[in-house]
Amino acid sequence: MALYSDKVMDHFRNPRNVGVIEDADAVGEVGNAKCGDIMKMYLKIENDTVADVKFETFGCGSAIASSSMATELIKGKKLDEVRELTNKAVAEALDGLPAYKMHCSVLAEEAIKAALDDYYSKHPEKL
Question: Which residues are catalytic, by number?
Answer without folding.
Answer: 35, 104
